[in-house]
Amino acid sequence: MRLVSPAKLHRDSPERHLLRRALHTPNPTPPHAGDCSLAATISDLVLSHPSGDPRSLAEALSPHLPSSPSLPDLVLKRLWNHAPRALNFFDALLLLSPRPPSSTLALATDLAARLRDRRILHRLLSLRPPSPRAFSSLFERHTAHGKPDRAVRAFLSMRRRHGCAQSLLAFNSLLDALCKSRRVVKASSLVNALRTHFPPDVITYNILADGWCRIKRTSKALETLKEMVDSGLEPTINSYNIILKGFFRSGQIKHAWNFFIQMKKRGNCRPDVVSHTTVIHGLGLAGEIDKARKVFDEMINEGCLPSVATYNALVQVICKKGSVEDALLVFDEMLKKGYVPNWITYNLVIRGLCHAGEMERAMEFFKRMEDDGVAPNVQSYNILVRHWMEEGEMEKGLELFERMKGRGGCLPNLDTYNVIISGMFRRKRSEDVLVAGRMVVEMVERGFLPRRFMFNRVLNGLLLTGNQRLARELLGLQERYQHLHRIRL
Questions:
Q1: Which residue among 125, 336, 361, 406 has the highest number of C-beta atoms inside a 10 angstrom radius?
Q2: Which long-range contacts (CB under 8 A, 24 or more apart) does 241-245 make?
Q3: What is the band of 441 on the pLDDT scale with cuts at 50, 70, 90?
Q4: Where are the PPR repeats (predicted)?
């Protein structure tokens, strides 16, 4: 079972909230229903437009734009898993409105960075000085692609090449990207080298502490907190929560529990809802379900109300270490207490039912998710597609795949294609290999880079089954798409 980390269960840690607020990217208010409907209409128009020419697309879009400032962002997010079309929409938008909102430009920049298309990226960065959010996305993409030095160079060139201020906020976002890609040693060296230019604040130290915890070096994380205190800064509750999660992450369950008890005894860092959720999640994954449930019950008695994220943690660990039936009881309990499950909650239960072999019940719960007004996302579909493929029900998996592209309203991502292509080799049928080949073509055209092993496996399968024409098409993809040149045959 793929586990959801506490960070995802919370979706919005205090650290991330502070960074976002500082980078002028506040929590978005829910979009108006009319804007969502119009965004869906525009997205469908972009996907069905026969030409890649931005001018003809702009003509087709002009009756629908402008509507609201948030509309372009909504469209780009709906088209996120078809990056070439999304960028085509952005180019058309430039013809209609030469100065798009900075948030829209930041999203387009992130898409270009994801495609690793340096030509498009350079063009977007030259439109106007990029926002801090755009640079934050660049740092994350470069480090995710294994290019941490490129992320550092992007930061160092902010003022000289792009006219953007090299603030401590931007520096912290660089450190955050490095630490999340397990390069805390490099991040720590940068902090020491640039200390006079960017004196560390609480966020800086918390990012470094989290980075050490990610590579299971909690002793270094504790040293970082000590350094924070020695510098005259007071650790926040988030500082302690980082250490708490670090202990669980490294398997130091006893240390984590003792640390949690010490937090309860100290007046300046009493556990909050994030602390309790972390403990429930950590204990549950360690197999201590009863103890996790006891912490859940005690937090309510101590006046700390659980959040939806807390219930999600409990549902996840019960699905993983207990039974899905007990997880469903927790789901019903949260409904009775007035909590509104989110897409994470539903996906956890759907995954639990799939792992229990209850595929039909999983499909029923998927429908319940829709009926309850929670839109299934790409993860929802991926869970079901993966398990239908593992059950040998290829047609049901492909049916869901077609549904998500149509009335499902969400485009397949890299994981979707990987699951389907891998599944097509289970039955060892020539027609399944043909489907796999078409999937590779489609995913590349949508801006996704297949793994080298998978690309070669499909290519060899096509050659062995006599599908030379499609095999030649796959080879031709390397000539058409720059980002595919990284695959060596």
A1: 125
A2: 241/13, 241/272, 241/274, 241/275, 241/278, 242/15, 242/206, 242/209, 242/210, 242/213, 243/209, 243/213, 243/218, 244/275, 244/278, 244/279, 245/6, 245/213, 245/278, 245/282
A3: very high
A4: 201-235, 236-270, 272-306, 307-341, 342-376, 377-411, 413-450
**Using 50, 70 and 90 to split pLDDT, how confident is the model at 19?**
very low
Give the number of residues written for the chain: 489
* Per-residue tokens: 147: 């290019």
C-alpha 389/C-alpha 403 separation (Å) is 16
Tell me the whole-structure pTM to 2 decimals.
0.87
| pLDDT confidence bin for 484, thresholds 50/70/90 | low
Average pLDDT of the residues in 412-432: 93
- Torsion angle, alpha carbons of 178, 182, 186, 187, to 10: 50
73: phi then psi, degrees, rounded to nearest 5: -65, -40
Query: In the predicted model, is pLDDT for residue 23 greater than 60?
Result: no
Task: Look at the block and give the residue holding tokens 């003792």.
Answer: 258
What CATH architecture does domain 7-15+131-235 belong to?
Alpha Horseshoe (1.25)
Q: Using the CB atoms, write b or e for 176-190: b if 16+ within 10 Å.
A: bbbbbbebbebbbeb
Question: How many angstroms separate the CA atoms of 79 and 138, rounded?
Answer: 19
Q: Tell me the pLDDT band of 34, cut-offs 50, 70 and 90.
A: low
Q: 54-61 vs 33-48: helix axis angle to the nearest 10?
A: 140
CA distance readout (Å), 471 to 387, 434, 459? 28, 10, 6
82: Cβ contacts below 8 Å, ≥ 6 apart? 47, 411, 446, 447
Answer whether 263's CB lies under 8 Å from 271's CB: yes
Measured distance CA(282)–CA(5) in Å, rounded = 10
Looking at the chain, the domain(s) classified CATH 1.25.40.10 span 7-15+131-235
Residue where the block lists tokens 């949508």: 446
Mean pLDDT throughout 22-38? 57
